[in-house]
Structures are given as structure tokens and as C-alpha cells.
Amino acid sequence: MLKNSSLNIIILFSSICLSQPVFINEFLASNTTNYPEIIDFDDYTDWIELYNSSNVSYTLNGYFITDDFENPLKWKIPDGTIINPEGYMIIWADDYNEIPGKIYTRPYWPWDEFITQNYHTNFKLSKSGEELGLFMADQGESVL
Predict the structure, then answer these.
(1) For residue 101, which phi and psi values (nearest 5 degrees)?
(2) For residue 141, what are the contacts with CB-CB under 8 A and spacing of at least 6?
(3) What is the pLDDT of residues 33-57, one digit of tens each?
(4) Closest by alpha carbon to 76, among 62, 58, 95?
(5) What's the alpha-carbon Rg for the chain, to the nearest Å?
(6) Please, where are the H alpha helices in the chain?
(7) How far apart are the first and last CA of the chain?
(8) How far is residue 40's CA from residue 103's CA, in Å, rounded to a whole number?
(9) CATH number of this structure's domain 15-142, picked from the four choices 2.40.50.140, 2.60.40.1260, 3.40.47.10, 1.10.287.130
(10) What angle do CA 73, 77, 78 make, to 5 degrees?
């Protein structure tokens, strides 16, 4: 189920794309009331959900997410990131550009340090519409 139909998702069908078990399942642009991210940074931010449709764990080595098809390698999913069989993964599109396990110091009160627990892209989603894609760098192909 797509939460915001104004984003344009282009699916490129090829033998490579059809064999990939991981795809963008849902996303939410301009989040103000659903599923808050209250662990790392903001209360309500945009998010992208990936889904592994296979019955085995899948490692996302070489995968990137972008909101600009002119720049398909905009945000790299860290190598070694695993999605469990038939599992989901939330990536927060909030422009913080962080991954789990990094020490971060808040630039505002209470100025404390914490260890990030979630994935955060280096871009936000536009509620007025834009592109959204999941790419593999080694093949130069979009998987969704």
C-alpha cells in the first residue's frame, strides 16, 4: 500500500529486476501523524520501507536509494545490512545521513550524545512529488 501517490515510482522491468527479492514496499512523504521515529532524531519524518519477498535472508551489499534518478547512487545502504526472510526494513528519509551504531551529538538542548539505532538517508521526500528508486551499483540497474 502506498501512502503518498504523488511520488512517482518507476519500475524498470528486466531479467535482473525480476530476480531481485528486495523492493520498496511502502513510503510516506510529509509524515506528520503516522509511525514516529522517536529514537534518534525527529518525532515524525518521511520514511521508506523495503521488503524482502524471499524465504531467505538477503544482504543489501551494493544497494542505494535515491530521490533523483540522475543520481542513482545518492544514499548507500551500508554493506552488511540484512533483511530477514519475508522481512521489512524502515529507512528514515530525514536528511540526517546516519546509520545504526554511530555516536551522534545533538546540536540542540540537551546536547547529549547517543548511539543511533536506525538508518537515515541524506535526503527527504517531497510531498509535491518526486522520483524514488532502489538501485544496485554493481549492475547499474534499478530494482524498483
Answers:
(1) 90, 10
(2) 12, 14, 16, 17, 135
(3) 777 677 787 778 889 999 999 999 9
(4) 62
(5) 15
(6) 15-19
(7) 15
(8) 11
(9) 2.60.40.1260
(10) 125
